[in-house]
Amino acid sequence: MKRCCLGIAFAALAAAQNGSSPSPPTGSGPYAIVAMMRVVGENHTVDFEEGYIRHLEWHRQAKDKFNWYSYSFGSSTERQRWIIYATFGHTSKELSNPVSPAEDARDAIVNIPHVQFMGSSIYEFLPALSRGNSVPSPVLKAEYTTVEVNFGDGKAFEEAVASEQSGIHGETLWYRMVEGGNLPRYVRLCPRASLESILDQSAGQALPGKVKGLVSKVTVEVLNLRPNMLVNVTADPRP
Predict the structure, then answer these.
(1) Which end of the chain is less congested by CB atoms within 10 angstroms, N or C?
(2) Does residue 230 lie within any of the structural domains?
(3) Cis peptide before 184 (omega within 30 of 0)
(4) Contact assessment for residue 114 and residue 35, using Cβ atoms and an 8 Å cutoff
């Protein structure tokens, strides 16, 4: 099954745009797009990766100024062979003006085989809950926590997490979904240099006890940054 990827992520946002001008640079806005795709079939990973790298070259040639991060999921998750592609730090105006969305979609269809598009969502960065800014450090690992909160309890959840913000150790970035899935949903991204760092700090990353009764589901996964699948991002190789 072949589906276009980066172009689909912007389809709704770009519907009213002519898509003829280069995208504006990534700024310090609060919004992020987080999208996922799954490689279909165990034997197609190489073909997919080669095609995806070709598609990312299209973004460079089109002078796309958005930062594009790519992560694969760790082997211990049920989402093996899934790829997250994401861009961070945008204003709503920037997201409304992607680079040539129709051409983006066409190139993705041509170059990215054996992939199923698994959805795209817009998130808003929550500085009161976080340590760091809206754009994650491009280190080689990240802890990726998805929190589904009971309907109507989003405000109470944010207040509970914010009340312990001063005790956070290490880069910890919270985002609230604003479009693209069941609400309320939150994502916490903790960039780390290694799996060892993630495991050593896992106890300190537990959700505060105050959220008990507010949360319906928590999923914790390890992401691997893909240095060969980045646009306008330079991987930090620190050990």
Answers:
(1) C
(2) no
(3) yes
(4) no
Q: For residue 8, which of 124, 114, 102, 97 has the smallest C-alpha distance?
A: 102
Judgement on whether residues 170 and 187 belong to the same structural domain of the protein: yes
Q: Does 83 reside within a domain?
A: yes
Structural domain contains residue 1: no
pTM, rounded to two decimals: 0.87
3-state SS assignment for residue 98: coil
Encode pLDDT of 108-135 as tens digits: 999 988 889 999 999 999 999 999 999 9
Closest CA to 87 of 46, 112, 59: 59
Scanning 75-187, the segments in alpha helix (DSSP H) are: 92-95, 101-111, 154-162
Which pair of structure tokens corresponds to residue 203? 């106890």
> What Cα–Cα distance (Å) separates residue 144 from each residue in 26, 69, 172, 220?
22, 14, 10, 6
Structure tokens at 5: 């990827």
